[in-house]
Amino acid sequence: MNDLPPDLPRLRTLETWLVYTLERVRQQIADVERREAEQRRGIEARPPVPEWILEQGLNRDALPVAVHVGGCHMAGKRWKGVPRDVAVRALTEGVQACGHCRPDTLLGIFD
Predict the structure, then answer these.
(1) Are residues 69 and 87 both part of a single domain?
(2) Same-domain status, 42 and 1
């Protein structure tokens, strides 16, 4: 069974359409590969997650609101990464420990 047209003009038309379609598919492949490469570069360029986080209050001069383990999803939008000694000092000075990630337990600070 032959599903192709028997005459040359229709075969040439079909060939033109197939070449056009193949170019569109190749362009789409190139676009997807470019997007995936950009996404990989973005992930690789992302800064490392800090070990400890101080969540800041609304006022920039106010004391921190809470201490979190780095990467805690309960931390608000206003936070900064801090070293271990700063997190320990904040907890001992009365800054609240996150009840979800429990940085006080991980730091060995018990009430």
Answers:
(1) yes
(2) yes
**In a shared domain, residues 62 and 102:** yes
Residues 27 and 60: their CA atoms lie apart, in Å, by: 49
The structural domain count of the chain equals 2
Q: What is the pLDDT of residues 23-64, one digit of tens each?
A: 999 999 999 999 999 999 999 999 898 999 999 988 877 789
Any idea what DSSP says for residue 50?
Answer: P
What radius of gyration do the chain's Cα atoms show? Answer: 29
Q: Do 56 and 94 sit in the same domain of this protein? A: yes
- Distance (Å, whole) CA 87 – CA 93: 10
Confirm whether pTM is higher than 0.70: no
Let me know if 50 is exposed, middle or buried by CB neighbors in 10 A (0-12, 13-18, 19+): middle
pLDDT at position 1: 47
Distance CA 33, CA 76 (A): 34
Q: Domain residues for 27?
A: 1-46
The token pair at 90 is 């904040």
